[in-house]
Q: What sequence folds into this?
């Protein structure tokens, strides 16, 4: 019985470490993608800071930046088509709730006239959710 318990505990520790490794890898990818998208779009750090502060900023470079990050995260394909399953899966991981993820997807993930507008408006809506 003690051996089984020890094996279970070891398994839990290993699983937790693997999860942390995965999170660390994801964070590194996000940092890399952020820098790549900043370079590709030409968006300024001031504009990004305003976005992070949940201020709506109408800026074409910011729209290119959000489009770039959506493609790199798999939220859009190269043609700018939304990948609803990827978005929903990510939102479920973040919120821990399928119901909340479905609500945010329904309210925020809506195709607009261009992929850049779609990505920008989606992010803007997510920040409004985050604020509430």
A:
């Amino acid at each position: 019985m003690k051996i089984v318990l020890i094996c279970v505990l070891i398994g839990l520790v290993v699983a937790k470490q693997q999860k942390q490794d995965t999170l660390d890898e994801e964070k590194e990818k996000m940092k890399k993608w952020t820098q790549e998208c900043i370079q590709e779009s030409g968006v300024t750090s001031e504009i990004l800071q305003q976005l992070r502060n949940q201020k709506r900023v109408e800026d074409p470079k910011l729209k290119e930046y959000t489009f770039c990050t959506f493609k790199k995260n798999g939220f859009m394909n190269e043609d700018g088509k939304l990948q609803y399953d990827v978005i929903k899966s990510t939102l479920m991981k973040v919120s821990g709730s399928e119901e909340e993820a479905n609500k945010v997807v329904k309210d925020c993930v809506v195709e607009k006239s261009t992929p850049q507008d779609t990505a920008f408006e989606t992010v803007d809506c997510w920040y409004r959710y985050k604020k509430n």
About this structure: The helical segments are 2-41, 45-52, 60-73, 84-95, 98-108, 115-131.
